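Lab meeting prep.
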Amino acid sequence: MKRILRLMLTAAGPYARQFRATLRISLAATVLQAAAYACFVPLLAELSHDPVRTGRVWLWIAALALLIAGEGALRVREMTFTYDHWHLVTRSTRLRLGAALRAMPQQELARRDTGDLTQVVGNNATTAATAVSSLAALFVQLVTVPAVLGVVVLALDWRLGLVLLAGTLAALPLVRQVQRRSGGGFRAVDEADGESAARIVEYVQGLPVLKATGRAGADSPILAPIFAHQHHTQTTANRSAALPVAGAQLLVQLALVGLVALGAALTLDARLTPATLLAVTVAAARFAEPLSLAAVMTKLFELSEAALARIDDVLTVRPLPVASGGHPPRTFDLHFDRVTFTYDGQDRPTLQDLDFTVPERSLTALVGTSGSGKTTITRLLCRYADPQHGTVRIGGTDLTTLAPDDILRHIAVVFQDVHLFDDTIRANIALARPDASDPEIEAAARAAGIHDVVTRLPDGYATRVGELGSALSGGERQRISIARAFLKDAPLVVLDEPTAALDTESEAVVQEAIDRLIADKTVIVIAHRLSTIAGADQILVLDDGRITQSGTHSELLAEPDGRYARMWAAQSAARDWRVPGGGHPSGDVPSAAVGIAAEPLT
């Protein structure tokens, strides 16, 4: 429980002080509750006294009433935290998880499934708040009441107390076994729930493909295996603890029966009064009740611990360290100084001894095959991770001396895959600068070439874009992304082939907007279509994490055996290809045409 208490205090966060106070109140209330039960011993003794001493009887009744009233008052204060702070702890936990995810190194964040994080922020946060607000106080009761009443029974008759103690000690290994089995089992259940949530997200996002292939529904290969695994882990976790729980409860009840049997024998032998036996029996019954309940509740505690541990796993991930001596950059030239970077879990570096400079207000294009390291360069520039060797600098400032948020204030990024939130067009553009006025937002939209499209919509800038921008075309989504960059007006711009997925007409409009965006900026562009970067100030050709060529378009074409010249020739030829034969007269494609080769037009 020390471990669970530490996790509860972590989950309580800013309400840890109130949580500790509530535990102290709960402990005091439980001691009063146990003392009230102890009052039955002298009360019953007085009632069996001949003659009955009425004054003493009423004295013990008054003590019993006062103890119960005191317990009730303390329980009211205890409930204040349970009911008033439950939603506050939930909210605080989710806000802190959000802050932790925002500060988490991108490399660490990328390895976690979206659905799994949804499980942590959603269900686990709720379970943690319940554990903090309710289960902790319940645990205090389950431990304190038997402890106090056990002392009372030992004080009344040590022989009966030893019987009760022996039964308790015999049950403890089984309770511990419940903890072990439930702990591992419910951690597996929680992981399976997280994986299930991740696959559900994947299923919903991939429904068009699954429908097209006839694999949507209960037997979907995305959902069926994970649901089967989830059911198996839940069943295993519940069954594994059933026998130890029943055994622990049986041993506690047998100890109670043994106590009554020994007490009866001692009473018949005149070594114990009937009143004392009755009082001990009452105390022992109340002693056994929470112990039996504890065996069952152990599963709930372990389930809570699994949720608390998953929250703790997110909250304790350290953000990238910020070294001392940093200052905001005043100029915006970029320099990669002998940079080597390897992703976690990989043996080979993605970037090897990379060394290049991007002058301020120039355009540098990165080209190369998939996996050559282009995207990794932009990630290191945005400080999503730090290189294992070498230094990345902006304006002479080492990025390790700046927090990622401070770096990103100077960088606008336009991705190939645009992410829009299910909110209004205005809100999606204003993400770049939440305090922007409506005229500033509209000016950014005009510069991005999307203003006229927006004004033709019934609700204008108040139009909701749908989930992931589904209500808009690809070109419209991309122009909203560019409007964000215009509104941010950062001196550094990173373009991740923003026109690659667009049709010809949309590409032309977006390209014009990009040309306006990058004027007088320091620009790095990841290029797949070489025709779009022919005018770059420098082109860096990457291969297996190294720069194999650098220069302008004309300089690189002057090296006919170089990779860039070969890529240019291949793309130029591809633009002139057609399917030979002009099509099949019947309109059907014969089976022999599958895999047909294209040939250049003459």
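Slide two material, second protein:
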Amino acid sequence: MTSRVTPHVLRVLRTPVGACAVALVAAVLILAVLAPPLWSVDANAVDTSQILQGASTQHWMGTDRLGRDIFFRVLVATRLSVQLAALATAIGVVAGLLLGTAPLLLGTRWGRPVTAVVNVAVAFPGLLLALFFAVIFGVGSTGAVLAIGLASAPGCARLTHALISGIAGRDFIAAARVAGVGRVRVVLRHVLPNIGEPLIVNATIMAGTSLLAFAGLSFLGLGVQAPDYDWGRMLGDGLSAIYVHPFAALAPGVAVVMAGLAFNLFGEALARAVGLDARTAAVSRGARTPLPAAPPSDKSPAVRSSSDTVLCVENLHISVPGPCGLVTPVRGVSFALRRGEAVGVVGESGSGKSLTAMAIAQLVEEPGSVSADRLAFMGEDLQRLSPRSLRRLLGTSLAMVFQDPMTSFNPAQRVGRQLAEVAEVHQELDRAKALARAVDRLRAVRIPGPERRAGQYPHEFSGGMRQRAVIGMGLMGSPALIVADEPTTALDMTVQRQVLRLLAEVREADDVALLLISHDITVVEQNCDRVLVMYAGRIVEDLAAKDLRTQARHPYTQALLAAVPSMTMDRDQPLVSIPGSPFSPADVPGGCAFAPRCPLADEKCADAVPPPVDDGHGQLTACWHTDLTDRSDRPQTHRMQGVGETQ
């Protein structure tokens, strides 16, 4: 991060505004350190013969009501003014971080009231809030510091919440949660390092604002009290005689303006250096109101399970709030995975494949809701486990491989440290042993030079190496299930084949179950034992991968197969496509969802949802007209040799 920001900082420092800002801030800080020991005696010397004198060679800014030199008093007051402003800024930043991260630390249910309070507080002017808190905490420096700090906290909280919202859905956050990393650790290790730059910029600008606000409270008599003095108190003392002796008020007033300008200019220059407009970065997103969970609307047949079943899902429903009410994009999904078995899930975008995987990994949070008759992993009911037990189970026995390998890693941390975190949390290894374990896992997924690569950042890896490193992260524990959500979509064909072969080798070596989600039905056919075909949130067919080309009975499965191009197809003929388009989850029609696109559909299809029916050989098909499917009339499909195929 430092190497990326430094050139921009140097470039900004060369501009007139940047150089001026740095010079002003440096001058203020140097005065805050050196002025009291150098000029405190001159500033506090009382000379009744020089009361309210004007500017002269002896007293550059004149004297006050006790004959004390105003110029030296302004210089000495720099330390207390800057010190109190810094304390108020620190309080505001800490309180703002706690309030801004509350939804992530406490969860949506408990974090939402905190966000609502912050939104209300931001609506009030900062000075009005400072006056309100000053009355509560009382007159004096301590009360003013607390008042200004708490008054500035809502703005910092709003900015923090907005920044967190921008990265909370990233894959590396989800990966950390699947690995069982606690919420506090996620915030400290994965969230704050990625939003640190704008927060530093905001804190710099807050320092200037706090200095001005503190001067205002002292001017009103609510801040620093005699015998101490800061610029605001000096400004208040000199205001009564401003027409007779203007320097008594003018000198501290100029000091306040210059110091505030210095910090604000420095913050703006820093914002430009890191590519952030600090004036608009504090716009937050409104909190959403949770909606009640949707009750299951239909039932699926009981899932066949055995003693070696790793994952059992029965009648899974996932509901999320939509613009016009509750939406249920996953409706009654049921399936099971045995140890060492590879099951593929295919379907068009929006069919509910990835959302099903997120529910298994417990990544669906409020306002979304998950309900199921049974959702068991390794014999444990995921709906009933405590958060601590859930983190322990998923962190050691479930591995997630996401679609985009770049977003699967925290860009602010080295790859080795991210892998080692799993061992530190769950295996209680010290830092050195955890890192050694991470290097060993990188070597296991065939990353060359694992010792060197462990010390590199994710952007220094190629796409295929990042995806292999993600698999290595899953192997830090002893996974019983790997959920791979579109793991090869962002990769070229050669790397696709390498990644899929690696997943197959891991599965065979450790008897690990694999749930492979993909748009590519050919990839699933060649790398899985069973295929689940999803459409509009339901599983419409469940059959053996070896029977996919010859025994598929659902019209949608047949249409997917027919749409796969081949190397031997007639190039003069148009590509086969499925007519129409999938329905939005908020507007799924009654009856069979595929009926409007199906050539076999009739009135019964439009009126009633077909249940999954077992053909007696373990194949389940949800269609009213499987008996009308003539396999001899199917469009010819050909097996594509090479892409995603393991041999």
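Talking points for slide two:
The radius of gyration is 33 Å.
The chain has three domains: 2-273, 309-535, 555-633.
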